[in-house]
Amino acid sequence: MAIVYDSYRQELADSSLPLLAAGQPGRTVAWRNGAPISAAQFLAHVQQVAATLPSGSAAVNLCEDRYAFLVAFCAIVLRGQANLLPSSRAPQAVTDVMAGYPGSYAVGEQALEPAPPSYHPMPTLVDLAHAPTSVDGFVVPLIPADQVVALGYTSGSTGVPKSYPKTWRSFHASTAGNVRVLHALVGKHFDVVATVPPQHMYGMEMSVLLPLLGDVAVHAGRPFFPADVAAALAQVPGPRVLIITPIHLRALVESGVTLPPIAAMVSATAPMPAELAREAETRFGAPLLEVFGSTETCVIATRRAADDEPWTLYDGIHLHPQPDGTAVEAPQLDGLLTLADIVVLQDDGRRFRLCGRHADLLEIAGKRASLGDLTRRLLAIPGVLDGVMLQLDGDVIGVKRVAALVVAPDLDEQTILNRLRESVEPLFLPRPLRLVSALPRNETGKLPRAELMAMLEKAG
Fold first, then answer.
1. Which of 47, 228, 257, 328 could disulfide-link to 223, CB 3.0 to 4.6 Å?
2. Which InterPro entries does the UniProt entry name for this protein (predicted)?
């Protein structure tokens, strides 16, 4: 492993890096409409689309079809432009992102109404039977290692979304960790089906960068309902890896749907309850790997959630606990970057346990708690289908009360509060607690704070 890692670090020192690794012309990059798309066909599609793109510094990639997104992503990169990846594809969010990049445009494979400013519809991806099938005539483009190829935006769950630039070198570095971990779990070749959008950094890492930089093929769809997930898995030969979130996994488990054999499941975007992980592993006969990362850092650690294990850091990653969070040192970062997560290191710093986020830590009248732990206690109440605890802004004397939004059709507010009193200090009981029909989760299950506050005010 050390030899491989040293070799990889040498590769990252190069001034340019390939757009497509594992670059044999016949290897399958994607599965679309039940048919394989080869590396040669894929690169021909990229060249076809790149030739049609307008000039500009950046483009919002709005493609819904994952293969179309993959093609557009690489075409934008070939033009020397950056992919803008807003946390939401809602029209206002797209407009706000584009306003920060004068001359930018949007690209997608669908007819949108209303369309964003400067919307560029992608050309139809034609059948390319003439694409080279041998090494002769098959050339993988090289991309400047320091070219900014994407700007990822945080979800806004703690405030206003922020952007983080990603160079092609940083994506190569972060993907190396994901490739190593998945190779050890399922082997060197596998097929990916993902329920998460490619615009989200987790979806980008696991369903865009893996097929580009590993010997991996991705299903072009983004299945949502359990039956659609099963159908998508049946369309790839395997070994199959399912990229999912806790909220999608719970729906899959509760549906009773039968899945084709899968080699592994990968989850992120929200904490994975150990009981759900155990149930999923038993139900589907495959290990569930939970990954830890952020838009800022990409994935840096992993664990088996079913065993409630500590997190194990990827090779080359080091954590440095700080009073207000944790500084991360990683090959994909130019320097130390501090996250709000509080950790306790173990095993000479190679493993750690999460103790919540700095912004989630509460102190009222000298007593302490965390919003994450309070939310877990809320969700443990029988009859609570979904819920979240959040801290309000300070009142006239500066006290920041705790509030809750809860989905529990068969319970009333007083019953929920009585159950919480069994395990929660009175100071941290939510006031107000509001029953709602559903929480405003985005495509990956996250909860933007602004939407929670608006819902809380409306429910009041």
1. 228
2. AMP-bd_C_sf (IPR045851), AMP-binding_CS (IPR020845), AMP-dep_synth/lig_dom (IPR000873), ANL_N_sf (IPR042099), ATP-dep_AMP-bd_enzyme (IPR050237)
